Amino acid sequence: MHRVSLLLTFVLLLPAFSGCFGDDDEVVVPQVAFDTTGLVAGTFSPISLTSPTSASVFIPYLVRQNTSGLVHNSTVLDLSAGSSVTLEVLAPPRTTMMVLLVGEFGRTNWPLRVASESWSTWLARGSPDSTGSSLIRSGSGFETVFNSSADSGGPVLALPITIHRPMHSGIAIENGGLHSTGFIHGKKVYDRLTVLSDTSPDPLDVADGASGFLDRWAGQGNLAYEDAALYLIQTLGDAGLRVESHRYLYTDALDNSNPEAYNICAYKDGEVFPDEWLVFGAHFDIAPPANLGLLDPHVTGMRTYGTRVGAYDNTVGTSMVLETAIALADIPTRRTHVFCFWSSEEGGKRGSDHWTDIYVKQDNPGVTVVDYINLDMVAVNWPGGGGAPHGDPATVIDDDGYPKDEEIWPMRVYLGPSSDHRVVNQPELAGLMQWIGADALGIEEQIGLLVGSENHSAETWKVDSWLESDRPEVIIYEDTTARSDHASFQDNLNAATIGFGGLVDGYWCYHQTCDTIEEMLEWMDTSDTDPVGGAPGVQNLVDSMDYVTWYAVLTLLHCDVKPLPNELI
Asked: What pTM does this model have?
C-alpha cells in the first residue's frame, strides 16, 4: 500500500486563495497524506497532517483520539512548523467528499456551513471567502469545545478530500452491494432481518415451528418470545456487552396480573460519565394473533389484526439496534450506552414504561437518561415509492395522517417532546438531524423540516407543511403525539427523544399476517415504476436500511459528545 501526498492538489488551489490570510501573510498549506487513494467511507480512517509552517486545521467530523479511543464531534489542531499528527476520522458514510479548513496558527473563530447544507454546497457558494454561520473554540486539541459565534474569523483555506465507499466483492449491486461495507452497513442489517424473519418450517422448533423467530407476542409467558429473547441475550453477550433481562409484572386497570413485560437490554459502561445514559431502542414484540395468524388480506380482501413475522413492525428496527450494539461494543464512550429491546409495545408500551418508571427512576435514581433514540417501522420509505403493490397508499392523502402519497413515502425523523406544532420546541435536535443528513448521509436535497403555522390545524399541519415544502422525501418534525416507546421516555423521564420511522398510513400489511420481508421488498421495488432510475426491492431496501441505520448511529455518537437536553424544561 503506497502513501499518497495531496500537497500538489492543494498547491493547485492556491491561485484562488492567494493572500487569503492578508496580503502580507504567507499562505499556509499543510501537507495531508494518507494510505491508498482516499479515505474509506463509513470507517475510522487515519489521516496524517504535516504542516511546513505553523497553521491550525479545523476538522469538522467525528474523530477518534489515539490514546483514549473516545470519539469527538470535531476538533481543531494547532500545528507548529514541521510538526505532524495522525488521527482517525470517521469518513462520512454516504458522500464522496470531506473538507478540512486551514487558518492561521492558534485561530479561535471559524466559519461553518449551515445545518441544512453539505460542505460541497458550502464550497460551491464561495463560503471560504464569506461570512455566515460560525463558531468559536476554547481549549485545544481533542478537548476543544465549540460555541456559536457571530464572528467567522475571516477567510480560510478549504481543502477538499475525496472519499470512497467500496462494494463488497461478493455482493452484486441489485443485492445491496452498494451499501455492504463500513463498520456498520445496510446489508448487514438486511441479513439480520432475514435471519430473524425466516419463515422456513422447522418441525424441531417447538416455540414457533420456524427457522426464524416468529410469534413474538407481548413478552414473558410466550414460549416464542422467550426463545427469541435467548437469541438476543446470546448474540449481545458474544459481542462483549453486559446483558440484563428486565421482567415486570403488569397489573391492569381491573387489578389483573399479567407477566408480559420482558425487556432485554445490553449495557456498555461510559468511561467519563457512567451515570449519564444514552438509550437506543426498538420494540421486539409484534402484534398479537387476533386473527390466529391465518387471515391474509391479500386473499380475503380485508384487513384484520395480528401477525406471525412482523418484519416491518418491528423486526427491522430490532435488527438495526442489534447490529448497532455489536458495531459499537468495542468503541469507548463517555456515557453509558444502553441498547434495549422492548416488550409489549403493541399492548401499550408496557415494556419501556416499566423500564423507565421502575428500573431507572426507582432502582437507579442516580442515573440520568440524557437522550433516547427510537427505531420503529423503518425502511419502507424513500428511495422506495412510486406505486404500492396493492393499491395503497390511496391517491388522496389522509389529512389527519402522516405525509404520504402513491409516489413518495417519506422517511420520518420525529423529535420531542413538543408543546406547539407552530414552533420548533427542540431546535438543537432539529439542527443536528439536518446537520447529519445534509452532509454525511448525502440527502441534502431530500430533507425538509416541517413546521406548522397559524393557518394549519393541529390535526393536519404535517400534511399541510409537507405539501407546501414540495413533498420532501425525508421529513424532520416534532410530534405532539407519541405512539411508540419514545413516549415512555418523554412522560416518565422528561428526556429528549429522536425517532426514526417509515411508512405508516397506507401500508397494507400493517399489523397483518402479510407483514413479511417479501412484502417489504414488493413495496420498495421501483424497477417497474421508474425504468430509468428505479431499482429492485433488495437494492432499495438495503439502501434505505443503510442510511437510516447510519442516521441513528451518527446521532448516537454526536449525543455521546454533547447530549441534547429537552429544551422544554
From this structure: 0.93
